[in-house]
Design brief:
It is a single chain. With 329 residues, this protein is α/β, with parallel strands linked by helices. 33% of the residues lie in helices and 26% in strands. It has 2 domains: 2-171, Peroxisomal Thiolase, Chain A, domain 1, CATH 3.40.47; 176-322, Thiolase/Chalcone synthase (Peroxisomal Thiolase, Chain A, domain 1), CATH 3.40.47. It has 11 helices and 13 strands. The chain is globular and about 50 Å long. Bound molecules: oxa(dethia)-CoA. Oxa(dethia)-CoA is lined by residues 28, 32-33, 36-37, 113, 152-153, 156, 214-215, 217-218, 221, 251-252, 255, 279, 281, 310.
Length: 329
């Protein structure tokens, strides 16, 4: 028995912010952002919080799966930008979906940009253990809450959004997982509270802001993606050349091209939609998956890998082999 994906969905806030829009408020340009990252726009929340985006992605996934929401008995939300320290975003999503009268486990987990894949692994384990039967696995972020718009080296990279898989134990797919962590005391990718000048940023000083050593993360990311893909394929007894499609965390097109070059894999096998959405952290992989599915890139019989990396430092991959006769993906 393995985990089948019954449906997927995504959601982004209503406000699309282009590189040119950002260039109006900070010292940057469309040319710089596109050349260094491949990003052209991102969606930034005005009023939506993480649970709102997670709820909308879940509703879209439930619609895609064509199942009765009352059959859901587990919700996991991967996020580094929860609505609050407590209750969990997953519990808020349960309430917003109107599912609070039914037995349902719900909790958040945080493995930064690898979070969705850790949530998928956790859902697989919970379902195999009999703790739940049919679950929503969500990656949801409002990173705009923790961006310092006076730091152009990070503010241009990230966007808000959410993605969701509806999963249950069934025939149809075979999943193999890999995850690793290298605890980092060097502060490569962190949030920290800064006493910023409120006249410049208009933010209260107690807000924790994202801080990143971009080049160190870049070097880590290239190694981490190659390692995760290689390890998950070894675990399953296949070669990386057997991968028909790779859905990587959408951080930077240069990272993805670097990995493709280094591993000798055609760039066409990698899904990329960061030009539109920017880096949405734990939401990026389910958003990219939903996009790939909508554009007809997923097919029965296909072997694909989802691969992520992020703060922690963490990195993870899930190999999904779709059966020839499946309708689950
Ligand atoms: O999910 C989290 C994952 N995070 C990542 O994957 C990030 C990985 N790292 C990167 O993607 C890249 O390191 C960045 C895109 C963040 C930066 O690109 P880079 O090629 O490493 O640029 P840099 O930091 O070396 O900066 C080069 C120049 C600097 O100016 P000087 O010192 O050469 O005059 C920066 O001040 O570019 C400047 N710069 C900018 N210029 C215009 C930095 N940010 C900007 C900007 N617009 N937004």
């Amino acid at each position: 028995m393995s985990l089948a994906i019954l449906g997927t969905g995504m959601a982004v806030p209503g406000r699309r912010v282009t590189n040119d829009d950002l260039a109006q408020v900070m010292d940057t340009s469309d040319a710089w952002i596109r050349e260094r990252t491949g990003i052209g726009s991102r969606y930034l929340s005005t009023t939506e919080n993480t649970s709102d985006l997670g709820t909308q992605a879940a509703l879209n996934a439930l619609k895609d799966a064509k199942i009765d929401p009352s059959t859901i008995d587990g919700i996991l939300c991967a996020t580094l930008t929860p609505d609050a320290m407590m209750p969990s975003t997953a519990a808020l999503i349960q309430a917003k979906l109107g599912l609070k009268a039914q037995r349902c486990l719900a909790f958040d987990l945080n493995a930064a940009c690898s979070g969705f894949l850790l949530a998928l692994q956790t859902a697989d384990a919970l379902i195999q253990a009999g703790s739940a039967k049919r679950m929503l696995v969500i990656g949801a972020e409002t990173l705009s809450k923790i961006l310092d718009y006076s730091d152009r080296s990070t503010a241009v990279l990230f966007g808000d959004g959410a993605g969701c898989f509806v999963v249950e134990a069934a025939q149809g797919t075979q999943m193999t997982h890999f995850a690793n962590t290298e605890g980092d005391l060097e502060e490569t990718l962190i949030t920290e509270s800064l006493a910023l000048n409120p006249e410049l940023t208009n933010h209260p000083s107690e807000v924790p802001y994202l801080r990143m050593k971009g080049q160190a993360v870049f070097r880590f990311a290239v190694k981490a993606v190659e390692d995760a893909l290689t390890q998950v394929c070894i675990k399953r007894g296949i070669s990386v050349n057997d991968l028909d499609l790779i859905i990587p965390h959408q951080a930077n097109a240069r990272i993805i091209r670097h990995v493709a070059d280094k591993m000798g894999l055609p760039i066409e096998r990698f899904v990329m939609n960061l030009e539109e959405y920017g880096n949405t952290s734990s939401a990026s992989i389910p958003i990219a998956y939903t996009h790939a599915k909508a554009s007809g890139r997923l097919r029965p019989g296909m072997t694909m890998a989802l691969v992520g990396f992020g703060a922690g430092l963490t990195w993870a991959a899930t190999l999904i082999e779709l059966k020839e006769d499946t309708t689950c993906y």
